[in-house]
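Renewal narrative, Specific Aim 1. Our central claim is that a sequence can be written position by position from structural information alone. The example that follows is taken directly from our test logs and has not been curated for this report. It begins with the C-alpha cells describing the chain, in the order in which they were read.
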C-alpha cells in the first residue's frame, strides 16, 4: 500500500539522518566482528555469538532498512513497517554489542549504533503517518490472533528468563546463567524485561483495539521478532562452534529458533493479508 506523501504528516529530516548514521555504524560493527574478530575481546563463546548476530545485522537488517527507507520515501506502508522493525532490531543489537562483550576499540561505534537506533525509533514512532493508512487496514485483519501471538511470545520470554532469575535471587553465589559469559549481569534480560517485551505488549494492545498506529507498528514488531529469532539461531550456532564445551550456546537451539522464526513469518504474512487498498481512503492507493 502507498500513501500520498504530499498529504502525509511531515517526518522531518531527523529520522533520515539518524538512520543513515546508524546504518554506517551498524555495518562497521558487524563487518569488523566478522572480518576481524581479534578486535573483540571476551570469552570465545560470546565472541562467536556476537559474530553470528553480526552476520544477521550485515546480511539482513542493514539491507532491509535501506530498502525500507526508499519505500517509505515513496509513501509505501511496507516501507514504514520495514524501517521501524529494522531499526528496532539494530538498536537492540547495538545494546548487545555494547554490553555482551568487554570494552574494546569499537566502543564508540557501538554507542553510535545503539544511540542513533534508539533516537531514530523514537522519532519514527512519534511521526509515522499511521492515520493515513487507516483505510488500507482491512476489517478482516485477524488482530486478536496476531495480538495473542505477540503477547504469548512475550510471556514465553518472560517465563524463560524468570526461570533463571528467580532462583538466583536467593542464591549466595553467582548465578549459573552468567558462567562463561564474562558479564556482570544478564544484559539481554534487562533489555527484554524492562523495555522490549513491555513495549511489544503495548503494541499488541493497540493492535487488539484496531488503532491505525497499533496495526502499523504491530507489523514492524512482528518483523522484529522474526529477525531476532533468526539472530538467536545464528548466535547459538556460531557461539557453539567457537567453544563447543561451553554451556552458554548450543547448536541444538538453532533449529528451534529457526522454527520460531518460521512461525513468526507466518504471522507476518497474516498481518500483510489484512492490508487491503480502499478507494474510500483519501490519499491511499495500491502499491
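The sequence written for that structure reads:
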Amino acid at each position: 500500500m502507498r500513501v500520498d506523501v504530499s498529504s502525509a504528516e511531515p517526518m522531518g529530516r531527523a529520522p533520515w539522518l539518524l538512520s543513515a548514521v546508524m546504518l554506517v555504524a551498524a555495518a562497521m560493527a558487524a563487518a569488523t566482528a566478522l572480518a576481524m574478530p581479534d578486535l573483540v575481546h571476551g570469552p570465545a563463546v560470546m565472541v562467536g555469538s556476537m559474530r553470528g548476530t553480526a552476520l544477521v545485522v550485515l546480511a539482513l537488517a542493514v539491507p532491509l532498512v535501506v530498502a525500507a527507507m526508499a519505500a517509505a520515501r515513496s509513501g509505501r506502508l511496507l516501507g514504514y513497517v520495514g524501517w521501524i522493525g529494522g531499526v528496532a532490531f539494530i538498536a537492540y543489537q547495538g545494546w548487545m554489542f555494547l554490553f555482551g562483550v568487554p570494552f574494546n576499540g569499537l566502543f564508540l561505534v557501538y554507542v553510535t549504533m545503539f544511540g542513533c537506533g534508539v533516537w531514530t525509533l523514537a522519532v519514527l514512532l512519534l511521526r509515522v503517518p499511521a492515520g493515513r493508512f487507516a483505510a488500507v487496514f482491512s476489517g478482516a485483519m485477524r488482530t486478536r490472533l496476531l495480538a495473542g501471538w505477540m503477547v504469548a511470545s512475550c510471556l514465553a520470554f518472560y517465563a524463560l528468563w524468570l526461570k533463571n532469575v528467580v532462583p538466583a535471587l536467593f542464591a549466595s553465589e553467582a548465578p549459573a546463567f552468567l558462567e562463561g559469559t564474562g558479564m556482570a549481569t544478564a544484559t539481554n534480560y534487562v533489555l527484554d524485561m524492562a523495555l522490549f517485551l513491555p513495549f511489544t505488549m503495548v503494541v499488541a494492545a493497540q493492535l487488539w483495539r484496531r488503532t491505525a498506529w497499533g496495526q502499523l507498528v504491530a507489523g514492524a514488531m512482528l518483523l522484529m521478532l522474526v529477525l531476532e529469532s533468526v539472530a538467536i539461531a545464528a548466535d547459538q550456532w556460531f557461539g557453539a562452534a567457537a567453544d563447543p564445551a561451553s554451556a552458554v550456546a548450543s547448536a541444538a537451539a538453532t533449529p528451534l529458533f529457526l522454527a520460531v522464526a518460521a512461525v513468526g513469518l507466518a504471522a507476518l504474512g497474516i498481518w500483510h493479508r489484512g492490508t487491503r487498498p480502499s478507494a474510500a481512503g483519501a490519499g491511499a492507493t495500491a502499491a
